[in-house]
Amino acid sequence: MEQLVASNASLHTRVGELELINKLYHDRVTQLEAEAAANKAVQDQSQDLQRLLDETRKQLEDCHRRENNLKRRLDELTEDSGPPTKKLKTDEVNGRPAGVEESGQPARE
Length: 109
Known about the structure:
This protein is mainly alpha-helical. It has one helix spanning 2-80.
């Protein structure tokens, strides 16, 4: 009978040890799963940022292309218009031609 009690106590001790080991493995698996989820979130965010960067670069290239097209059109229009025309002198303060009052009448001197 004593041998049975000793064997039972030994088995209880072994069961406790195995439960502790099982808990340690479970905790480690949980930790690794959390790290994997965090790494996936960082990877997804990185991919989103890369996609955004690519879109922004494409938009910048499109803007440069449009700018160059507009400059070329401006140059073409400037060449087609012939010699530059005389500019009307304007009053620095109010933007009207010099010598003209606000009413549109010539200024009296």
